[in-house]
């Protein structure tokens, strides 16, 4: 039987706001801290000082928790990474919570999950954490959360900055992915519904970018369809595919409003970087008359639905660990074979046009000294291997980041950083 955590510690059961994730017995003293959201029964969101106190408390209370600073925002707020595990493991799962500052429910689910795992004493949870390292960025956009805005303090959507890496937030997340090579990247968001056609409790979506390795793509779809959605549905929540309007009678898709293969979005970068990525979106809008009258009730439903989905993620991570590790490991090794096309467009539900396919990629891209100076830091953050020479530098495609490199350097790529010179003479 797979391990489960509870989104709230049992010592705080009277104020429990989230669905169970892993079963945990009564907690040892001291009493586990509670979030501001829990303290107010969902009347308001946890403040950043409250988040910092909670993380400091669990860091001191549990040897399986470590909290580090991985970046600083323009407004001097810390970007924190929480590592949860009994020991270093090959299997790594990364949660990115609330990239958009006005989408707080995922952050609340992440904070309570961190706390519960810090204090859980049951053998199943301990076994889970001996085999899996869970990494959490509890607030991926602190400036946006403070202002309750989608973008950061410059108004930039961080979830459109995972190629250029111009924001402090995007750079910090890229470094975490490079340094820890997660097998799963789970990205928590919220969405506004459209009555009848687009109003599920939860939507999710895997990497659609065509450069995602086939086995990794299949793992991400399995995470969605066989684990996350069933877990949420078992708790009474409705689910669907993000960005697809459906007919309320037939259930057939009638309109696509999002969900393309654009490489600068985190769920697609996840696939390109060989992780089973999943975007999860909880519904902001109230579902019932009671929720319309009681904002706290609506807020609790938003957080509980995210917690239910997390239950599916943890079960997946435990049950499919070996298959997932094989898939992500093979995908990283595949780049060294330096074979096959690279896609500059298209998606798994939208075939690429001929002009969007590099059928015979170059063996390397050459950068002059000025170009290399302009983007050397970003290449390093992406984990791209670069070779220096007298004229500047060159980037060989024979490496784990093979599918990413043309997206960064080829003039035909929609979001390329510079126009490098392709070299076919190898």
From TrEMBL:
Keywords: Hydrolase, Metalloprotease, Protease, Signal, Zinc. Residues 1-28 form the signal peptide. SMART domains: Zn_pept. InterPro entries: Peptidase_M14 (IPR000834). It comes from the Bacteria. CDD domains: M14-like. The active site is at 281 (proton donor/acceptor). The keyword Zinc applies. Its cofactor is Zn(2+). Residues 44-310 form the Peptidase M14 domain. Belongs to the peptidase M14 family. This is DUF2817 domain-containing protein. It comes from Streptomyces anatolicus.
């Amino acid at each position: 039987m797979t391990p489960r955590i509870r989104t709230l510690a049992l010592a705080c059961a009277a104020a429990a706001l989230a669905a169970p994730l892993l079963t945990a017995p009564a907690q040892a003293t001291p009493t586990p801290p509670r979030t501001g959201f829990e303290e107010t029964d969902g009347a308001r969101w946890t403040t950043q000082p409250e988040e910092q106190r909670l993380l400091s408390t669990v860091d001191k209370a549990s040897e399986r928790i470590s909290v580090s600073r991985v970046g600083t925002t323009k407004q001097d707020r810390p970007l924190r990474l929480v590592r949860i595990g009994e020991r270093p493991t090959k299997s790594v799962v990364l949660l990115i919570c609330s990239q958009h500052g006005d989408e707080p429910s995922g952050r609340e689910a992440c904070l309570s999950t961190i706390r519960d795992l810090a204090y859980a004493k049951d053998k199943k949870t301990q076994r889970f954490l001996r085999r899996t390292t869970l990494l959490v960025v509890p607030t991926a956009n602190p400036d946006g959360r403070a202002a309750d805005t989608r973008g950061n303090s410059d108004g930039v959507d961080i979830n459109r900055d995972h190629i250029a890496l111009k924001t402090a937030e995007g750079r910090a997340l890229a470094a975490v992915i490079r340094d820890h090579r997660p097998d799963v990247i789970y990205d928590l968001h919220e969405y506004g519904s459209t009555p009848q056609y687009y109003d599920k409790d939860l939507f999710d979506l895997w990497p659609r970018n065509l450069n995602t390795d086939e086995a990794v793509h299949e793992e991400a779809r399995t995470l969605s369809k066989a684990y996350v959605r069933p877990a949420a549905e078992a708790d009474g929540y409705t689910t669907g595919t993000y960005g697809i309007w459906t007919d309320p009678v037939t259930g057939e898709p009638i309109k696509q409003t999002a969900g393309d293969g654009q490489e600068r979005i985190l769920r697609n970068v996840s696939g390109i970087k060989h992780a089973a990525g999943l975007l999860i979106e909880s519904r902001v809008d109230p579902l019932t008359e009671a929720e319309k009258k009681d904002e706290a009730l609506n807020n609790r439903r938003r957080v509980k639905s995210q917690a239910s989905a997390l239950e599916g993620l943890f079960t997946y991570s435990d049950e499919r660990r070996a298959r997932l590790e094989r898939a992500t490991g093979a995908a990283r090794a595949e780049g060294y074979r330096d074979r096959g096309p690279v896609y500059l467009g298209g998606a798994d539900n939208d075939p690429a046009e001929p002009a969007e396919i590099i059928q015979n990629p170059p063996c390397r891209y050459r950068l002059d000294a000025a170009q290399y100076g302009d983007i050397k830091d970003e290449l390093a953050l992406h984990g791209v291997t670069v070779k220096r020479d007298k004229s500047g530098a060159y980037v060989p495609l024979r490496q784990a980041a093979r599918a990413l490199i043309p997206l960064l350097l080829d003039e035909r790529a929609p979001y390329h950083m510079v126009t490098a010179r392709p070299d076919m003479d190898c």
